[in-house]
Amino acid sequence: MATTIPPTAPASTTLQDAVRKLAIARSAEHAVKAALDEKRLLFATANAGLLATEKEARAAVAAEEANVRALALAAYEADKSNRKPAPGVEIKLFKTITYAADRALAWAREAKQCLVPEQLDVAKFEKAAAVLDLDFVTIGEAPKPAIATDLEKALSVADVTAPAAVTPEPEVAAPAKPRRGRKPAPVPAIDDEDPFA
């Protein structure tokens, strides 16, 4: 079902002409959206099992990453000299700036800096506070674990064994709606890849 969008015409000179063009544009948009929604539904139906497996795998990765981060922070807190507590894991230190918002706003008004009309410009203030010696500002560091994206490279090959590959479900073609006086047109197969991800 190929839907063509009308070409953009020059700006209308009358309200009635503009309203007509808007109605045509909305109709074309609705047709394209309906066609896309139908294709998305067919894809989701044909690949329901694989999509569910992908969702579970993504949740498992998120849980494992959270566990690695928690264990890495605990290891760093136990030994702050070791910023690489495991292969593929590094503790990075990020500057933190702690201050009382009311005192920062009072300073900004007095110094006539870091202000958005009647508000503290937090980004500018924190940049300035990092280099100024303000008595109400505390500058510290916050450790955050960074996990290598290529853990196979960081670990020895023997430490990483991938589970068996997931085999995609067989393609399922939706039945075509018969057209008047003609044989139903064949439905093209849907790719295994999710074009909407």
Summarize this entry quickly.
The protein is of the alpha+beta class and 197 residues long. The chain has helices at residues 15-46, 48-78, 101-111, 122-129, 151-154, and strands at residues 89-99, 115-116, 119-120, 137-147.
Question: Can you walk through the features of this model?
Answer:
This protein has helices at residues 15-46, 48-78, 101-111, 122-129, 151-154; strands spanning 89-99, 115-116, 119-120, 137-147. The strands form 2 sheets. The protein has a two-stranded antiparallel ribbon. A two-stranded antiparallel sheet has the order 2-3. By secondary structure, the chain is an alpha+beta fold. The two termini are 22 Å apart.
Distance between the termini: 22 Å
- The SSE string, one letter per element, is HHEHEEHEH
Averaging pLDDT over every residue, what do you get?
81
Please outline the major beta sheet.
2 strands, antiparallel
The count of DSSP E runs of length 2 or more, i.e. the number of strands, is 4
Strand coverage percent = 5-15%
